[in-house]
Amino acid sequence: MKNSSLETYSLKTAIKDALTEWSTAKSYFNQVSEPELVEYAVLRLEAAEKRVSFLLRKAREEEGDPP
């Protein structure tokens, strides 16, 4: 069953937001040098990457593509 256009729009918005967060996290990672901040930056970047991956997989599933 296809989702409503509102649900699709919300998923598209979530993907856009996740990509923005990933870009921000990547920029932050490239700017820090203190060990504790580097560790935080790595964790933040990994979390952003996982969120993007999850949302893109969900979008593919909703389009009817196999996982």
Provide an overview of this structure:
The chain has 67 residues and is mostly helical. It has one domain (5-62). The chain is 82% helix and 0% strand. The chain is elongated. The mean pLDDT is 89.
Compact description:
By secondary structure, this protein is mainly α. It contains 2 helices and no strands.
Relevant terms:
single chain, 67 residues, mainly alpha, 2 helices
Q: From N to C, what is the helix and strand string? A: HH
Helix content: over 70%
Number of helices: 2
As a percent range, the share of strand residues is under 5%
- Number of distinct beta strands: 0
Q: Average the pLDDT over all residues and give the rounded result.
A: 89
Number of domains: 1
Shape: elongated
What gyration radius follows from the Cα positions, in whole Å?
15 Å
Briefly note the structural class of the backbone.
mainly alpha
Taking the sheet with the most strands, its summary is: none
Residue windows where pLDDT falls under 50 for at least 5 positions: none
Distance between termini? 16 Å
Structural topology:
Elements: H1 5-31, H2 35-62
Helix pairs in contact: 1-2
